[in-house]
Amino acid sequence: MASYSTNEFRSGLKVLLDGDPCVILENEFVKPGKGQAFNRVRLRNLMSNRVWERTFKSGESLEAADVMDQDMEYLYTDGEFWHFMLTDGSFEQYAADAKAVGDAVKWLKEQDVYTVTLYNGAPLSVTPPNFVELEVVDTDPGMKGDTAQGGSKPATLSTGAVVSVPLFITIGEVLKVDTRSGEYVSRVKSS
Amino acid sequence: MTDVAAWRPTASREALESRARQLAWVRGFFAQRGVLEVETPVLGHHGASDLNIDSVRACVLPVAAAPATTAWLQTSPEYHMKRLLAAGSGPIFQVARVFRDGERGNRHNPEFSLLEWYRPDFDDRDLMDEVARLVSGWLECEWPEIHSYRDVMRRYAGIDPFAATDREIARRCEEWLDPAEFPGMARDGYLDLLMSYCVEPALRRSGPTFITHYPASQAALARVSTDGDGYPVAHRFELYVNGIELCNGYWELTDPDEQARRFAADNAARKRAGKVEMPADQNLLAALAAGMPCCAGVALGLDRLLMLKLGTRDIADVLAFPFERA
């Protein structure tokens, strides 16, 4: 396996630290003119999602982590695993467990494309696109004729996610939602 | 994938113009003061002996087809300029391109511009005054405050760098690293970490600051005396502006025997660290023996001075081509 020296550290690089795959967020080279050089590195542990700060002696190296981001279509869940398929035409399928799917589970819609991060060939995490379009399956009745006024209510989407929506939203409408904040963005015009 | 923009300079046209103006301003500063501009070799037979400064090796064929000679790109023009001083040059300055291996970051490039000057009959205080005049004149910033190494360490790192034991200093660094994973790192290595992690960031929030009276173990080529509490201290100073280390100056060591001992101590430390040893520069020792005048000298990073002038925190903004594009 390849390894990277501190002078190759840059944000986005995937390395192994204490046996866990991590992504480098920031690398600062510090050295008083006559003194010892260090690299002050911030990394996200891809297993725990925790951010670490670590100090390395300049010139040390870390093993590269076999971590790859792949676009995959979500197929279905059998209750234990969530199944995805590569969109590169290979039809290769991967099964992600609940830990890998994590919070993305509430945005998973069949046939939509997600970023699946593979570690040593197995799904490590699933990242939804920034925006998804989902149908409202349950919400209190809408209030007609008062679309401009503020106020909100909860609405349950087809994936089970609950988002706060304006009062005029009704069951059956398709909404655009920001997956990063979990916030309602707009209605999607039905054709 | 190759970067299609990699042929382009990283410095703006404005930065290039400021660089030219800065150079003219510096030359004017020294012309007014009767300091002679000199040029000394970039390619020398001796590299720096400092433990933490690595010279770039060059392979030279002075005569075609003759066996290659190992030479070193200079990390500072210090040794050569001191030989000029010993030969009676009087006050001298140089704008030098210097090279240091293993140094690349937001404030470092393996090749950079150093302004180095020497003042016979000056001591460290006199030279700090001249540095302050040059820097505050060009940057139009406040006159620097002066604090001792011991005071800034006590204030910002919460440790007395002279009184604390090695163990206490290493323990102070456990917030950032596990000393067990840094075998062979000496007291000064931990102090350097505290300088980078505690003192420098704190100095970003204060005005220009001289740090003086470094531990004797970090004297490099400065003379050493004893402070009021009986600790040996180096007559070495550094200037920080906005937390950026700008220069390093000494009331120069002139004693050839002490210089020879420091070369030997440096090389012992280099050997322990598994680094190539640098034979003592006999020409420098001979120049000191012949009589180098009592003087103070300082090296100031011109790229960083320009970063401060332009308010950028990335050295690439002031270099036409940083190393990746060189």
UniProtKB/TrEMBL annotation, chain A:
Involved in peptide bond synthesis. Alleviates ribosome stalling that occurs when 3 or more consecutive Pro residues or the sequence PPG is present in a protein, possibly by augmenting the peptidyl transferase activity of the ribosome. Modification of Lys-34 is required for alleviation. Keywords: Cytoplasm, Elongation factor, Hydroxylation, Protein biosynthesis. InterPro entries: Elong-fact-P_C (IPR015365), NA-bd_OB-fold (IPR012340), Rib_uL2_dom2 (IPR014722), Transl_elong_fac_P/YeiP (IPR020599), Transl_elong_KOW-like (IPR013185), Transl_elong_P/YeiP_cen (IPR001059), Transl_elong_P/YeiP_CS (IPR013852), Transl_elongation_fac_P (IPR011768). May be beta-lysylated on the epsilon-amino group of Lys-34 by the combined action of EpmA and EpmB, and then hydroxylated on the C5 position of the same residue by EpmC (if this protein is present). Lysylation is critical for the stimulatory effect of EF-P on peptide-bond formation. The lysylation moiety may extend toward the peptidyltransferase center and stabilize the terminal 3-CCA end of the tRNA. Hydroxylation of the C5 position on Lys-34 may allow additional potential stabilizing hydrogen-bond interactions with the P-tRNA. PANTHER family: ELONGATION FACTOR P, ELONGATION FACTOR P (EF-P) FAMILY PROTEIN. The modification N6-(3,6-diaminohexanoyl)-5-hydroxylysine is found at residue 34. Residues 69-124 form the Translation elongation factor P/YeiP central domain. Its main location: cytoplasm. It is found in: Cytoplasm. The keyword Protein biosynthesis applies. This is Elongation factor P. GO terms for molecular function: translation elongation factor activity. GO terms for biological process: peptide biosynthetic process. Residues 132-187 form the Elongation factor P C-terminal domain. Belongs to the elongation factor P family. Pathway: Protein biosynthesis; polypeptide chain elongation. GO terms for cellular component: cytosol. It holds the Pfam family EFP.
UniProtKB/TrEMBL annotation, chain B:
GO terms for molecular function: ATP binding; lysine-tRNA ligase activity; tRNA binding. InterPro entries: Aa-tRNA-synt_II (IPR004364), aa-tRNA-synth_II (IPR006195), aa-tRNA-synth_II/BPL/LPL (IPR045864), EpmA (IPR004525). The keyword Acyltransferase does not apply. This is EF-P lysine aminoacylase GenX. PANTHER family: ELONGATION FACTOR P--(R)-BETA-LYSINE LIGASE (PTHR42918:SF6), LYSYL-TRNA SYNTHETASE (PTHR42918). It catalyses: D-beta-lysine + L-lysyl-[protein] + ATP = N(6)-((3R)-3,6-diaminohexanoyl)-L-lysyl-[protein] + AMP + diphosphate + H(+). Residues 26-322 form the Aminoacyl-transfer RNA synthetases class-II family profile domain. Keywords: ATP-binding, Ligase, Nucleotide-binding. The keyword Nucleotide-binding applies. Homodimer. Pfam families: tRNA-synt_2 (PF00152). GO terms for cellular component: cytosol. One of its GO terms (biological process) is lysyl-tRNA aminoacylation.
